[in-house]
Write a structure and sequence with these properties.
The complex is a heterodimer.
Chain A (H helix, E strand, L loop, with lengths): L1 E4 L2 E3 L5 E2 L2 E12 L2 E12 L3 E5 L6 H8 L7 E6 L2 E2 L5 H6 L2 E3 L12 H7 L9 H6 L3 H19 L15 H14 L4 E5 L7 H18 L2 E5 L3 H7 L2 E6 L2 E6 L1 H6 L1 H8 L5
Parallel strand pairs in A: 6-11, 6-12, 9-10, 10-11
Antiparallel strand pairs in A: 1-2, 2-3, 4-5, 4-7, 7-8, 12-13
Helix pairs in contact in A: 3-6, 5-6
Chain B lengths: L12 H4 L6 H21 L2 H27 L7 H18 L5 H20 L8 H20 L12 E2 L3 E3 L2 E4 L5 H24 L1 H11 L1 H6 L4 H28 L1 E2 L1 H4 L2 H14 L4 H25 L4 H22 L3 H15 L5
Antiparallel strand pairs in B: 1-4, 2-3
Helix pairs in contact in B: 2-7, 3-7, 3-8, 3-10, 3-12, 3-13, 4-5, 4-6, 4-10, 5-10, 7-10, 8-10, 12-13, 13-14, 13-15
Classes of the chains: A alpha/beta, B mainly alpha.
Bound molecules: adenosine-5'-triphosphate and magnesium ion (MG).
Chain lengths: ~270, ~350
């Protein structure tokens, strides 16, 4: 990573990364006596792939939930696009262009793949109830336009053949892909992925890695992802935050993080005092 | 052989999202419409209208309404009878207060008023779900019936405590009252059924429906991807209430003519409509029709064959009906939550591949 400054930096492979898009400042999140996140700060820059890693229970998913507005941290601030974010409900955060996938797939099982992916377009569709009831004017035009956008995502992720299949009938690997499609359909400013490759075989992992890189490359989407597979993290990400027991123990390029003694200890399971 | 989409290619997304993507279905739908509007009115008599057609049409509207709430949005309601009563009393007050306005608008307004009441009783759904919500709507059911019994203003201080529909006409043809011709009552209800089905279909194939289904399937995920749960749930209560209110208004004004609230809109009605939705198919407009037809026709059929032909006593036939309905509910809930509509879909699927199933 060269010339890191306010304007951005250039990655190893020559991609230009922009300024700060989202910044977490001194976030602390507690569940009763459990401190899930303790005074963590980091930023996510425009156009980068940012990984969050750490052992089980480190607080990674909790961090994504703070970003999505699902958990409300007791302390700290979230800054987004240069402004401090006030307290928001999850659906308001989504309206701001933050889309995500879940560690345990959270699709709408009773709906078809197409309808699931269409729900990703909520932000872009605003026709009122009356127009929708009559299927006229704005409602009809909007439906067609957004369907076209969704079909592009469906083509991109190669799930055309299951378009009309109810999601409940799909195997695990395809569900993961549909969930990514739903998030992508939102055309988000930031895409949050919670273990997108968990439980996949090698081939599926390769496909998913390719999709993530392509999304970042073709649409310039900023991505924050949690992943356990170190090989994948090292290949994909530009910068890595390392968490352990709710604390941040490392932050930097994959190479820097790999050499960090605290990170090595955490992963080798060195006893905590 | 001819029932398939081969050669029936969709060239636009508009084509693909239409209600009947397969041509044959579309033609059958037009045929049903023509028959319903042009043929049936010519041939039906009093018996058929009162025993079969009016209850079928009116319950179909109620079932569509309840299906939107339960089948699409996943919010259980046992208050349907009470909400139908709101529609009935609303149309009664409107008919008697504004006799110069057409009954057509009264029925629509009654739907609107019921929608508002339904939203009010839907507010607890923002906090509670499942069993607790069912109990809350049950409370609404009893409260509403109690209210219409107790407050004389609702029944215009009539001595009997009943409400009865005065005669109202459209273009000189009586729609309510003793003089109403069977075909006129039938056509009036048919117009509302057709409009309700179209509106419900449009809402459920678009974004409103997707938001409802997202809430039904996983409310937390729905909120995280951008569904405002308050708006989605309350809009389902509103739309559902609108249809249920219209059906209550028609049930009172066009079908029964006079009503005692506890008898016509008691808890039994709530269950009857819920059973229609379950047997017909949760989350299906067609299923709402199938369920209404089934539960309207079953007693007529049993009565005609068992009592009429075989000479069974009436109460025995009635018990048999309860047993059949009861076991069907269990069968459908356990084995096929998507009801008759799903059986129909499966049959069509088979037909589409026939005679080459692979
Ligand atoms: N809703 C909750 N209530 C109570 N405790 C919670 C809750 N969510 C998370 N925790 C706790 O917070 C800590 C961090 O959990 P989190 O799910 O964020 O870890 P993670 O890093 O994502 O782990 P994994 O790799 O297993 O997914 C854990 O100790 C967990 O038990
Ligand atoms: Mg996790």
């Amino acid at each position: 990573m060269k010339d890191m400054d306010a304007e951005g930096y250039t990655t190893e492979d020559g991609r230009k990364i922009g300024g700060v898009l989202m910044e977490m400042r001194n976030i602390t999140l507690r569940f009763g006596g459990v401190v899930a996140i303790e005074d963590i700060s980091f930023d996510i820059r425009e156009g980068e792939i940012r990984a969050i890693i750490g052992p089980n229970g480190a607080g990674k998913s909790s961090m994504l939930n703070v970003i999505s507005g699902f958990y409300n941290p007791q302390e700290g601030e979230v800054w987004y696009k240069g402004a401090k974010r006030p307290h928001m409900k999850p659906y308001q955060v989504a309206q701001q262009g933050i889309a995500r996938t879940f560690q345990n797939i959270a699709l709408f099982e009773g709906m078809t793949v197409l309808d699931n992916v269409m729900t990703g377009r909520i932000r872009q569709m605003s026709a009122g109830m009356f127009a929708q009831a009559l299927w006229k004017g704005r409602a009809e035009a909007e439906e067609t336009e957004n369907r076209a956008a969704v079909e592009k995502v469906i083509d991109f992720l190669e799930i055309q053949h299951i378009r009309k299949t109810p999601v409940g009938r799909l195997p695990y690997g395809l569900k993961k892909r549909v969930e990514l499609a739903r998030a992508l359909a939102a055309e988000p400013s930031i895409l949050l992925l919670d273990e997108p490759m968990a439980g996949m075989n090698v081939e599926e992992k390769e496909d998913m890695s390719r999709f993530i890189l392509d999304v970042n490359d073709e649409f310039g989407t900023t991505i924050a992802l949690i992943e356990h597979d170190m090989g994948v993290v090292m290949d994909l990400s530009d910068r890595v935050v390392v968490m352990d027991y709710g604390k941040k123990i490392g932050d930097g390029s994959p190479d820097e993080v790999r050499k960090n003694q605290a990170v090595i200890d955490a992963y080798l399971g060195v006893a905590h005092d | 052989m001819f029932y398939r989409e081969a050669g029936d290619f969709k060239t636009s997304y508009t084509d693909d999202s239409q209600t009947f993507p397969i041509k044959f279905d579309r033609y059958r739908y037009y045929a049903v419409l023509v028959a319903a509007f042009a043929v049936v009115p010519l041939v039906i008599d009093d018996y058929w209208v009162n025993a079969v057609f009016l209850p079928f049409l009116i319950y179909a509207i109620a079932a569509i309404g309840l299906n939107i709430l339960v089948g699409y949005c996943g919010q259980v309601s046992l208050g349907t009878g009470g909400f139908m009563a709101v529609g009935a009393y609303a149309v009664y007050k409107l008919m008697t207060s504004f006799p110069e306005v057409s009954i057509f608008f009264h029925v629509i307004l009654a739907g609107g008023i019921t929608a508002a009441v339904c939203v009010l009783f839907g507010l607890p759904s923002l906090r509670i779900k499942g069993f607790y919500l069912a109990v809350a709507t049950l409370a609404a059911q009893f409260f509403l019936v109690w209210l219409f019994n107790r407050v004389p203003w609702f029944y215009n201080y009539s001595a009997s405590g009943q409400i009865s529909a005065p005669e109202r006409t459209i273009a000189g043809v009586p729609i309510t009252g003793a003089e109403t011709a069977p075909w006129a009552a039938y056509l009036f209800c048919l117009v509302f059924v057709t409009a309700s089905a179209l509106i419900a279909r449009n809402l459920t194939r678009g974004m409103a429906g997707r938001k409802w289904m997202a809430i039904r399937d996983m409310d937390i995920a729905a909120e995280i991807i951008g569904v405002n749960p308050l708006k989605a749930k309350l809009s389902a209560f509103a739309v559902s209430g609108f249809f249920v209110g219209i059906s209550g208004a028609l049930f009172f004004a066009v079908y029964l003519g006079a009503v005692e609230v506890g008898e016509a809109f008691g808890i039994n009605k709530s269950f009857l409509v819920l059973f229609m939705v379950i047997i017909g198919g949760l989350g299906s407009i067609f299923g709402s029709f199938a369920g209404a037809a089934f539960l309207v026709l079953l007693p007529v059929l049993l009565k005609n064959t068992l009592v009429g032909t075989l000479g069974w006593p009436t109460d025995l036939a009635a018990h048999l009906e309860l047993m059949i309905v009861g076991s069907l509910i269990i069968v459908f809930l356990v084995a096929e939550p998507h009801g008759l509509a799903q059986l129909w879909r499966v049959a069509k699927e088979k037909l589409r591949l026939w005679p080459f199933p692979h």
